[in-house]
UniProtKB/TrEMBL annotation:
The lineage of its organism: Bacteria, Bacillati, Actinomycetota, Actinomycetes, Streptosporangiales. The keyword Transmembrane helix applies. This is DUF6069 family protein. Pfam families: DUF6069 (PF19545). The chain crosses the membrane at residues 27-49, 69-91, 98-116, 122-143. It comes from Microtetraspora glauca.
Length: 151
């Protein structure tokens, strides 16, 4: 059964698939742009922390976390967030709401390792903040994109 749209033209039954593909692609593009912004913001915040004297030395092995490491980890987990958002857009009746709950829960869980790392107070505090920087970029951006793509 075909239906007429506002212009009086009969809509193609396959147009629903095109619309869904367009929504998923738009969400992915928005997510990847936000990922780049989150990577830059996190790396700049880590550089600022280093500039004021925070050393990101992890006691287990005495290795210092390099600045590019912040960008790589932020990029990886931001892409994981995009995959979760795409899956929820595809399979959830309320993707934005479910995404926010999932992302906030995962962000809270991500705060545990810095607390258990054994790093000094300054490094621990900086690491906690550096977990919140990409969350502050990614969660609202993807949630907003999920809302506008389902309305």
């Amino acid at each position: 059964m075909n239906s007429m749209n506002d212009t009086g033209v009969v809509a193609d039954p396959a147009s629903g698939q095109t619309s869904r593909t367009h929504r998923l692609r738009g969400l992915a593009v928005t997510g990847f742009i936000a990922t780049l912004a989150a990577m830059v913001a996190t790396t700049l915040a880590a550089a600022l922390a280093q500039a004021v004297g925070v050393d990101f030395e992890v006691p287990d092995g005495g290795e210092t976390i390099p600045l590019p490491g912040f960008a790589v980890v932020t990029g990886f987990f931001s892409v994981v967030g995009i995959v979760i958002a795409v899956a929820l857009l595809r399979w959830s009746a309320r993707p934005a709401e479910r995404f926010v709950w999932t992302a906030v829960s995962l962000t809270a869980i991500s705060l545990v390792p810095p607390l258990l790392s054994g790093a000094d107070t300054a490094a621990t505090t900086a690491l906690l903040g550096l977990h919140l920087v990409p969350a502050a970029v990614m969660i609202p951006t993807l949630a907003r994109s999920l809302r506008t793509r389902t309305d």
